[in-house]
Amino acid sequence: MPLPAMPTPLLTPAANLIAASGGRVTRTRTAVLEVLQHSARSLNHDDIAAELAANGLPHDRVTLYRTLDWLVEQGLAHRVIGPDRARRFKAGGEISSPHAHFHCERCGHVLCLESIRPDERFTLPAGYEPERAELVFHGTCADCGRRRGAKA
Amino acid sequence: MPLPAMPTPLLTPAANLIAASGGRVTRTRTAVLEVLQHSARSLNHDDIAAELAANGLPHDRVTLYRTLDWLVEQGLAHRVIGPDRARRFKAGGEISSPHAHFHCERCGHVLCLESIRPDERFTLPAGYEPERAELVFHGTCADCGRRRGAKA
DNA sequence: GATCTAATGCTACAATGTTGCATTAGATCC
DNA sequence: GGATCTAATGCAACATTGTAGCATTAGATC
Ligand SMILES: [Mn+2]
Ligand SMILES: [Mn+2]
Ligand SMILES: [Zn+2]
Ligand SMILES: [Zn+2]
């Protein structure tokens, strides 16, 4: 029997965001944004490359850099520079919702603290015009603290 | 007539700090610490190398890295990672007086805001144990704002 | 001044990110 | 569906920032 005609295939949320921003909806962009969207913590370049390869979509290093930069430009992802001087990425723009980050010195993970907004809580010296503020806590995360027992 | 015997030569403040920390008082360490002490803003590796060369004391890149690391270890300098992923250094320890920094996006300078202390002003989610907090403002510094006229 | 070794200089290497250009594939038009 | 146009990708070479190993130099002590 003949297959019924498929309706116009629904785009994933990631693909829709990419299409809405005016760029081409490519496998790479969709896959990278989905990796970011499915992660609770921020991911560095290697994390993302490994995840793509695991999904059968290995990519050139440079393409990944350019794709991530593009996602940040479009406001579909944001970036934090970790203490290891490497960039970490997470889905979602930052300008719309600036927030602090927590770097765990045991497991190395960087988490977004959406509830903590660093802006407009400090008075700077006269003449200094801040446009944004970066706030990063360093210490032990909840997971690592629990794993160590009651006393961290 | 015979020259009067010179008293034991006075060490510079920088040399005294270095001697007090137990390490050898070398030309390199003294010169680097003095460069840092004489600067109001934090300096990156190239800034320091250029300053040393201008003073007739050119140095190997690696030695500079090691010297700066050593000064930080001894608590005689502190370090901030700039948005260009390069470290910037300033005289004085940070643990004793944690403070925020201001990065000017026009001139690229990074200044210490000794009066703004990022710690103990935020409540983190349960289980998260911060040991230190980094707070960096990004915007236009007073100098660059003035240079642009009343309206930045 | 002679001695001991921390500090330095040199070379090679690692990690992260960038540039230029040829090739591929996403979009558009038919 | 296929032809066309060019944004996106892949590839190679390079740039920047920082590290590791080891021979040489110079700060401290005698
Ligand atoms: Mn975040
Ligand atoms: Mn500072
Ligand atoms: Zn952790
Ligand atoms: Zn400025």
Overall average residue pLDDT of chain A: 87
| Bound ligand species | manganese (II) ion, zinc ion
- Give the radius of gyration of chain A: 19 Å
The CATH homology group name of chain A: Winged helix-like DNA-binding domain superfamily/Winged helix DNA-binding domain
Number of domains of chain A: 1
Largest sheet of chain A: 3 strands, antiparallel
Helix content of chain A: 25-40%
What would CATH call the class of chain A? Mainly Alpha
CATH architecture of chain A: Orthogonal Bundle
Q: What is the straight-line distance between the termini of chain A? A: 65 Å
Oligomer classification: homodimer
Strand order of the largest sheet of chain A: 1-3-2
CATH topology of chain A: Arc Repressor Mutant, subunit A
% residues in beta strands of chain A: 15-25%
Query: Could you spell the SSE succession of chain A in H and E letters?
Result: HHEHHEEEEEH
Q: Helices and strands of chain A: which structural class?
A: alpha+beta
The gross shape of chain A turns out to be globular
Number of helical segments with 4 or more residues of chain A: 5
Task: Describe what this molecule looks like in 3D.
The structure is a homodimer of 152-residue chains. By secondary structure, chain A is of the alpha+beta class. The first copy, chain A, has a single domain (22-147), classed as Arc Repressor Mutant, subunit A. The first copy, chain A, is built from five helices and six strands, in the order ααβααβββββα. Chain A has helices at 13-20, 27-37, 45-54, 61-73, 142-147, and strands at residues 43-44, 77-81, 87-91, 100-104, 110-113, 129-140. In chain A, the strands form two sheets. A three-stranded antiparallel sheet of chain A has the order 1-3-2. A three-stranded mixed sheet of chain A has the order 5-4-6. The first copy, chain A, starts with 12 loop residues before the first helix and ends in a 5-residue tail after the last helix. The relative contact order of chain A is 0.12. The interface between A and B is medium-sized, with 35 and 35 residues. One zinc ion binds next to α5 of chain A. Chain A binds a DNA duplex (30 and 30 nucleotides) through residues 23-29, 45, 59-63, 65-67, 70, 84-87.
